[in-house]
Amino acid sequence: MKGTGRRQSRASTNEITARTTTGQTGSGRSVMSINIPYRMVRSSMEARERWIEAGIEALRADGIDGVRIDRIARHLGLTKGSFHHHFSGAGQYRLALLERFESDATEALRRVDADLVEATALEALTRLPEVLDSLFDVPLERAVRAWAFADADALAALERVDAARLAAIEARWVAILGPGERARIAALVPHLLVIGASVAAPPISATELRAVFDLLASIAPAVE
């Protein structure tokens, strides 16, 4: 009996059981039990993640026009049937890519903000070039901004990301200038500079960007 109990315990960790009960009223109806092996659920989740990661990589490399289901399927060695198992169509897939872009950008902002939590606004300003690589995925950022010109969902996701970034910078200036328009304008300067630098062609070198932020830091006290 003990051996049986151990086998049942191990089985329970490898299965997800969905149970629907229809006989609780005493009508004599049967109970339906569906056992789905956990490894199948995990495999399905991993396949969906692979689709999203490959879509992000295609978007990063070739823009939204490069996000083609047939090409990505060949790259992954998966079928279109696998795609339609996880997404209702290209529209839902693109929304999933935008959700990933937004969640990654928001998480990157949270980490950077935590790293600079002890810094003043001016100190954070001078350190921005150090954290740009972790804050911005430049090729992906460029692709999403181009996509946003023609797609309302991409624009909405980008607006939320930009609003979160601007709010984080503005919060530091509020500590110096107090709440109001001046703090927002002061925050807009590095915010717009970073956006411009992230999409500039040819790219601005790290040395040049550092020099620009050093200059900003030297003149920023004049706004106090």
TrEMBL record:
<feature type="compositionally biased region" description="Low complexity">
    <location>
        <begin position="17"/>
        <end position="29"/>
    </location>
</feature>
<dbReference type="Pfam" id="PF00440">
    <property type="entry name" value="TetR_N"/>
</dbReference>
<dbReference type="InterPro" id="IPR009057">
    <property type="entry name" value="Homeodomain-like_sf"/>
</dbReference>
<keyword id="KW-0238">DNA-binding</keyword>
<protein>
    <submittedName>
        <fullName>TetR/AcrR family transcriptional regulator</fullName>
    </submittedName>
</protein>
<dbReference type="GO" id="GO:0003677">
    <property type="term" value="F:DNA binding"/>
</dbReference>
<feature type="DNA-binding region" description="H-T-H motif">
    <location>
        <begin position="68"/>
        <end position="87"/>
    </location>
</feature>
<dbReference type="InterPro" id="IPR001647">
    <property type="entry name" value="HTH_TetR"/>
</dbReference>
<feature type="region of interest" description="Disordered">
    <location>
        <begin position="1"/>
        <end position="29"/>
    </location>
</feature>
<feature type="domain" description="HTH tetR-type">
    <location>
        <begin position="45"/>
        <end position="105"/>
    </location>
</feature>
